């Protein structure tokens, strides 16, 4: 059996509850984020589009 080892990390945005794979994450300065809004620190106060996630920066 081959197990695919995808490393999952929590988005580095403090209020974000999303978990992303390292492969699919948006990376900024060694940190992994779930989306551009989180990676940019929510400059427009826009949340990420994920259900159940309340982060807005
Ligand atoms: Zn999120
Ligand atoms: Zn996020
Ligand atoms: Zn966020």
From TrEMBL:
Coiled coil: none annotated. GO terms for molecular function: metal ion binding. Transmembrane segments: none annotated. SUPFAM superfamilies: Metallothionein. InterPro entries: Metalthion_dom_sf, Metalthion_fam14_prok. It comes from the Bacteria. It holds the Pfam family Metallothio_Pro. Keywords: Metal-binding, Metal-thiolate cluster. This is Metallothionein. It comes from Methylorubrum rhodinum. The lineage of its organism: Bacteria, Pseudomonadati, Pseudomonadota, Alphaproteobacteria, Hyphomicrobiales.
